[in-house]
Amino acid sequence: MNLILLGAPASGKGTQSIKIIKEFGFLHISTGDIIRSNINNQTEFGIKVKKISESGKLVPDSLIINMVSEHLKNLKSGNLIWDGFPRTIFQAESLDVILKKNNSKIDLVINFDVLETKIIERVVNRRICTKCGESYNLISNKPKTNGKCNLDNADLYIRKDDTLEKIKVRLEQYKTSTMPLINYYKKSGKLIKIDANENEETIWTKVKGLLNGNY
Ligand code: AMP
Questions:
Q1: Cβ-contact 167, 119 below 8 angstroms
Q2: CA 112 vs CA 10, 83, 196: distances in Å
Q3: Residue pLDDT, tens place only, 145-186
Q4: Which 8-state DSSP code applies to residue 141?
Q5: Which residues, including other chains, have CB under 8 Å from residue 143's CB and lie 6 or more apart?
Q6: Consecutive H or E run containing 16
Q7: Measured between alpha carbons, how far is residue 148 from residues 63, 67, 140, 192 in Å?
Q8: Could you tell me how many helices (H) and strands (E) the chain has, helices first?
Q9: Which residues are known to be catalytic?
């Protein structure tokens, strides 16, 4: 199964991905995570995309599609969550082609619908564990010890693009390049919208219901 999680930055795609992986054993393709790992490891690709990615703008389609194709080569087969990809119509069309070559297709697209005010509140209060990637919110989901992960006590960090200035750029990119995908997948009858303004457990109940076929 190929499941796309569509939504603005901080709409909960990453958090729900972790829950889906734990409950249903999907494999996770997060293009944002792959890019950040390349930047941290100072790979040739990471060095090339660091500036543009950390500015909040989208990395050019050709580079992203190449990166995804390479990543797929090293992935064992299984159900896939696509998190943060596709983000443009061109990427969506390319993904259709890539999947078709592998006798596969998109099965379900969940669109996480969140208010802009909520997104900004989530982004500026987001803290992430340097070790396990667990995400916290300083208002709604505080770590027990300030600056430390509840799960492994590792330090928490702030993403370079989680600033008020950068989230404005990211939202603009989302509106112009990614929002058209809502119609793209609506037309194919694969899109289901969920209200993602609520807390992560309420959203999880809905996502789990969808994946259990109760929709
Ligand atoms: P994310 O972690 O999904 O919010 O992605 C972080 C950043 O990585 C984005 O702001 C982009 O600069 C870049 N990025 C991630 N996925 C894509 C994509 N599918 N297309 C273009 N840029 C991407």
A1: yes
A2: 10, 11, 5
A3: 999 999 999 999 999 999 999 999 999 999 999 999 999 999
A4: B
A5: 127, 136, 149, 150, 156
A6: helix 13-24
A7: 35, 32, 16, 36
A8: 9, 8
A9: 13, 87, 126, 159, 170
Is the CB of 7 inside a 6 Å radius of any atom of ligand 1? no
pLDDT in tens, 26-74: 999 999 999 999 999 999 999 999 999 999 999 999 999 999 999 999 8
Question: How are strands ordered across the β-sheet holding 80-83?
Answer: 27-30, 80-83, 2-7, 108-113, 191-195
CA pair distance 4, 106, nearest whole angstrom: 8
Does the reported pTM lie above 0.85? yes
Q: How is residue 112 written in tokens?
A: 């996480």
Mutate to test the pocket of ligand 1, among 59, 81, 126 (most ligand atoms within 8 A of CB): 59
SS3 33: helix
